[in-house]
Each structure stands twice: as structure tokens, then as C-alpha cells.
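Subject: two folds for Thursday's group meeting

Dear M.,

Sorry for the delay on this. The cluster queue was jammed most of the week, so I only got both jobs back this morning. I'm pasting them in the order they finished. Each block is the input sequence followed by the predicted C-alpha cells. Could you check whether the formatting survives your parser before we put anything on slides? The first protein is the one we discussed after the seminar.
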Amino acid sequence: MPETRLPADRQFFADLLSGLVLNPQQLGRVWFAHSPAQAPAGRFHTEWPRLDVVLRGACGNQLIAEQKAIRQGEMLFVPARAASVPVFDAPVMLLSIVFAPSWLGLAFQATGSGQPQRNVELPHPERGECAAMLTALTHLSASPQDQDIIQPLALSLLHWCRKVVSLSPLPRMSRGEFLYQSICRWLQDNYAEPLSRESVAALFTISPNHLSRLFSQQGTMSFVDYVRWVRMGKARTILQKYHLPVGEVAKRCGYDDSDYFSRLFRRQFGLTPGEYRARFQ
């Protein structure tokens, strides 16, 4: 069978990442951005973690004095909700990777070279491995001197990115379907957090009304019903496997009010949480 070729921009990033992971000796220190109380105009801020890799030249981060020169092969990790203010005093070639819920964003820029900027966004189904590495890097930002641990971890993250970019493209789905599936996967991972239509819409940079339309058009239940369905399913699993107080089960499923949680559970399954758990003892 003929080999499936990646789209041009995707192949570009696959080749770029291959050059990095196959030559790890060229990679150096990993720097960390912080969350300043106030950041000047021009800051680069996202709700999601980001990794910048300097491919050629050097750049800086105006927010942190010691990051005046991040040189070729070095990286800047920006945890979720942290910020950086890039400084380009000379031509620089930079790869930026954004780790959003259920999709991966890659951007390439080469200032002063005349090369066009390239961007691509890719869905990815594997959340656990990537999330674990991002969480570890975020914790290690408190001890940036542990480069013997940090650098191999960053390299593993680049390997993971290369794998995602190199996968054969899936059948193209509409933007609405992709966004709906991304939100559902994110809710399945973050069901214990305080969730509202407004907060989730803001995270995915859409309006609350747009969020409601997505669930109406793409799904089989409303946003509120879907959140409750996910939480009740998780509660049932916890009750089957663990002997925890009902209040603790409620809290782990995103409900501060255990009485309200119990009413919702009984409405959905016809049993109280205690009665349901008794069936598995």
C-alpha cells in the first residue's frame, strides 16, 4: 500500500521534532516562566502549558532578569496561567508548543529570516501520559536547578509531541464536532472541579451560548445534564470500589453539598448512595 503522506505543515513539524529528539545532545537547560502579579503589555499568556524551544539564535523573557538570553537548544516552560514577555534582540528561530485540552498547538517563527510563520493544531486522544509529564514539569518549576531530572522529562515530552504529529491524519471532522468532543473529554478529566457554563466556555474561548448550542447540536443532552451524567457515573464507580463517607464521595465528584448530591444520585439511579454501595459489600 502507498505510504500516507502528512499534510505539508504537519510534515514540517514532524521533521522539526525528529531533529530535536534524535539529537538530544543539542538540547540544553530548561527555564521556567512564572505567574507575576502584574505583567506588562506584550505578555504571552495562555490558560494552558506551553513549551518554547530555541532552535537557532537566542531570545529573552522580559519578566525574569536572569532569562535575558535563552540560547539555542534551551527551552522555556510556561505552566498554565503563567506568562512570558518574549524579547527578540537578534534573529531567532523558535518552536512553540501549546498543550491544550485534547489538542496540540504548534507554531514556528524565524524572525529576521524572511521565512513564513507556520501554525498547526492537532487533536490528540492520549491525555494521561502528556498530562503526567506536564504536571511533573509544573511541580519542578519550584526547583529549576534539578536539570538532571528536568531535561530528560522535557525530552520525553518532545518525543510525545513527535508521536502525535506523525500519526496519520484522522478523517476530518467539523470544527463544531471537534470542539464538542474536546470539551467532553476535558469534562471527563476535570469533573471534580467547580464547573459552570461560563467557566468552561471561557476556558475554550467561546461564549456560554455557543457552548450550549454545541451540546444541543452535537450531543444528546444539555451541558448541565452532561456534567451531572459524568459526575454520577464517577460517583457510582467510587461507591463500588471504596468505602468512603458519602460526603467525601460527593466532594470527589464536584459537589460540596452531600444532601444535594444524594438527591441527584437517587433521582438518577433510584437508590441512595448508601443503598447503592450496600449492593457491592
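Second protein, same layout:
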Amino acid sequence: MRIVIAEDDALLREGLALLLRAESLDVVATAENPETFLQAVDAERPDVAIVDVRMPPTHTDEGITAAVEARRRRPELAVLVLSAYVEQAFATELLAQGTARIGYLLKERVGRVEEFLDALHRVAGGGTAIDPEVVAQLLTRTRPDARLQRLSPREREVLALMAEGLGNTAIAERLVVSDGAVHKHIRNIFAKLDLAPTDRTDRRVAAVLHYLDDARHRD
């Protein structure tokens, strides 16, 4: 796995590089600003980019903009975005072009090494890893979508874990229920969210994006 890290905090940038190299992962470049990050993406052709949301010069949305541009240049690139706190608009901007090979984690998650590495490998493998805190905030908003109100408490739990990127077996293990029970809950979620099966839409992804998009339009 070839990795590029874009992080303006030198201590975190080098710490991440050391952590990943200790796991026998190939950190091919590190960057402290969006320009050098995109240059590294073009030159090194990495498999994964780990990108801070806020980078120089204004420390607003340069990192997320660079991540979106990197995906435009290399659609197969997996991107794991790190943020100091939940920024829902940035999460939805990143996910607007699809959820495959996309992750959005709070920086505090990096300190939980196993969780961070699990998210990294999940994203590199073509999956999605959305921080549980992002999911929690989306599912407990003061003015939720009417369809959300149709879900039972257990169905909300299942949807939250789906949004984190967990598969059915992992959800079953987390909730200590059977795979069959999880499958039933997911069928109910699709029905209550009016997500009919089609050849062009992944209903699992659509269920998650519905809430992210809803949150973006109400912020």
C-alpha cells in the first residue's frame, strides 16, 4: 500500500509516517500544503492519501478541496480525511462523488491505533469509514427528516453502524445479534426510507448519503 500524507502539523505528519512505516506500510511522500500534496499524488501515484481538512494558507477548506481534486485526477485513489472536529459540510462535499474508497475520521481516532488502521485498510480496500461522531451528530439533529422518524431505535443503531462503513457481520458482532437479524433490520430501513432496489443505486450507500445530504442542506 503506497501512502501520501498531507498534514501541516509537522509533529502529527511525522508521527503518522512513523506509525504507518512501523506497520510495514509504504509512505512514499509527506506534504505540508495542498500544492505539494497534489504534486506528490501526480508523481508518486499512491494507493491512499491521508489528508487534513484544514491546511495553509487560510486553514479553512484547503485540505478538503485538495482531496476532492486528487480524486478528480485519480478516481481510483482512496482518501482518508482527518479533522479536528465534526464538519458535516466538508464530509458531504467529499462524499458527493461517491463513497467508495472514502474515509472521514476525527484526529482523536488516530490515537486509537487499531481503529485508525482498520479504517485505513477498509478505505484502501474499496470501502467507507465515517467517524462514529459524525454519524451520531447526523442522527440526533433537532430537525430530523420525517423518514428518520419511521425507524425504530434498533434500526437507527444499525444505520449508524452502516454509515461508519461496517458490513453486516461486523454490525451483528457489535450489536450481539445474528446476521439474519441485521439483514432484516436493513430491509426495514430501506423500506422506511423509500429506497426501492434498482440496478443503478446501492441502497446501502443511498441510506447513508440521504442523511449526509439532509444535514448539509439544513446547516
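Two things I noticed about the second structure. The longest helix spans residues 203-218. The longest strand covers residues 26-31.

Cheers,
T.
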